[in-house]
Amino acid sequence: MMLFTTPETFPFGVALLLMIGLGVIEGIGIFIAMSPSQIFDHQFELNHPDVDGSLGWLHVGKVPILVLLILFLLGFAISGYVIQMLCTSLFGTYIPALVATLPATLIGLSTVRGLGGLLALIIPKDETTAVSEQTLIGRAGIITTGTAKPGMAAQVKIRDQHGYYHYLMVEPDEADVEFEEGSEVLIVKKQGAIYRGIRNPHPGLV
User: Are residue 14 and residue 103 in the same domain, yes or no?
Assistant: First the structure.
């Protein structure tokens, strides 16, 4: 029990708690059909369009970012505890927490690199967002979560020209219009991180 309460393992305990918390949040999101991973990934890619080049080696853009973060926290926490256990076995004492976090961070990144690569092969590619945002304008989709109102976005599922699906946040482009869950929406423009749409005049486009 001393291993989990000593100050030298404090960062790894925090990492475990964060990992569990993120897992619970993601599980609740999936249960209510509003996955935080999908929303977070969309917002992240809007602000970091070059993720394939700069962070591609960590499989960002191929695996949900929250999943990659959970993998990092898992590798970081477990390796940190193992490092401290080895130190007590070899030297009879724990090493400072800051010193232990350095190799644990490298192992955490290696965990993301290794297990993330396996997940990238398993996770379906129909939710990728590797196309230009502008190509989604003029395409129709279905509201999957929430009710879209002026000033309040809802999640819409759109299929791109390659047949892949994207999850966007959309608001009505017209005042006094609401799109309930299941409504068909035609995307007409994009303002910041939010897309704007009208009721789909051609249901066959979905």
Answer: yes
